[in-house]
Amino acid sequence: MQEGSANKRGAIIIGGGVGPMAGVKLHEKIITFTITDGSDQDHLDLIHLSRSRLIPDRTRFLHDLQGPNPGTVMAELVASAVTAFQRPEDQMPVSLAAGVPCNTFHAPLVWNAFTKQLEQLHAAVKPVHMLDQTVEELRQRFAPGAHVGILSTIGTKESGVWRNAIQEAGFIPLETDQMWTEKVHGAIYDHSWGLKAKSPASGKAKAMLQEATEYLINKGADAIILGCTEIPLALREGPFRNVMLVDPVSSLARALIRTAGAKSSPFLKASY
Amino acid sequence: MQEGSANKRGAIIIGGGVGPMAGVKLHEKIITFTITDGSDQDHLDLIHLSRSRLIPDRTRFLHDLQGPNPGTVMAELVASAVTAFQRPEDQMPVSLAAGVPCNTFHAPLVWNAFTKQLEQLHAAVKPVHMLDQTVEELRQRFAPGAHVGILSTIGTKESGVWRNAIQEAGFIPLETDQMWTEKVHGAIYDHSWGLKAKSPASGKAKAMLQEATEYLINKGADAIILGCTEIPLALREGPFRNVMLVDPVSSLARALIRTAGAKSSPFLKASY
């Protein structure tokens, strides 16, 4: 066996379309962070599903609890991709990892439906939890009791997904107050100048997210999680006034690469 | 039916992994160029296959004529994705388009094997030819007899794919001479400073590609095709000293969107 062949066994499924560009960013990071022998052929096999039309809005589902669960729908699509990987004429990948680049998708009501449905469909795939992997990387760098700030939308804040993950890891979560959460939310959703409306990011969205970051730094944050996949479009991961801004999509990319059996560039080197 | 529902019928398959990052750039352009109602759900359904390990190197295949034809292999993968779109529990997409973001893949020996195998597998998908679509967009802007320069690797130049497509459209192809083709090839493949080795692009690679561009402008080019998917990493599409640099991946993205039945932002607006 030649050097680098470890990369040739595993595979990754991206459950994308939530939103579509977040999947592209995850896909790009997987390619960038995978350590290969320099050839196209040494990259991990990957199937990227972006079927937004079929996946209900996560925030709305959590709010109304009506209609199909986005987790169940996504599991069915991922399971169909697993089947494509298992065609008899292909070699069966040893290790198949799946990830979904959406913060709100990791609310227990959605995530648990996703993993349960994958089990029921006997899908031979390991789902990788973006928030747990992010917090796990933080544990490698920060001692228990460190203060971890969270920038997120109103919906993600209300769901408590980041607050709970951070607390369970032994860190102290720092959240924005209502006024600042509304400002962060506006920087993402505002129809005239928000990140979902304007590409590249408007100066107003950038300035507002920087101010929110400074607010969390003044509250004592040791690290800050960019807890919405749109935020890194305006605020780069990496050091900011000596505080580390962390993009969970990067943590998910590294964890998917490792779970699929390949080598990933490490936490700090990969991003900064 | 509500406004924008035209986007809800069609779907796109990206035959990616050739190389992996070219697929990501195509995917990103499809999202950026699709005109939607602003919601995730209005984007086209998309399955992006990136199974580099299974797809033989195109240049090597054309040189040696040994081993499986990359076109046949890609057709089998695309057909399996078509099957995933045709599950009875989904709505069948009216219009399914497939594209492969690799210049050399469009050499007749590979492309014809691709389309023939899709037919034999009865895959209900319309393959979209990147080079033909690029030349078609040029015809909308330039009169017959215009001079169209080509920047490409040695392998793509030898295959003649661009030269033939440009001639058939009634334009006059301008190619680099042997010395300049070797310089362009080096800017892409050199293991220490080439585009496949260094990300972001090295100053040396950028400078060399700019010089090659100026060489073609001095030969009288009215437009220049960035005829290798790596070149736009160093040289942006758009106007350069009053000559238009054209990224064929952008033309492919727009054609896939239209073929799938959605609205694309137009040629100039989409890119520049």
TrEMBL record, chains A, B:
**UniProt xrefs under Pfam families:** Asp_Glu_race
What the entry lists under InterPro entries is as follows:
Asp/Glu/hydantoin_racemase, Asp/Glu_race
- Which SUPFAM superfamilies does the UniProt record give? Aspartate/glutamate racemase
Q: What is this protein called?
A: Asp/Glu/hydantoin racemase
Could you tell me one molecular function GO term of this UniProt entry? amino-acid racemase activity
Q: Which UniProt keywords apply?
A: Isomerase
> Domain of life of the organism in this record?
Bacteria
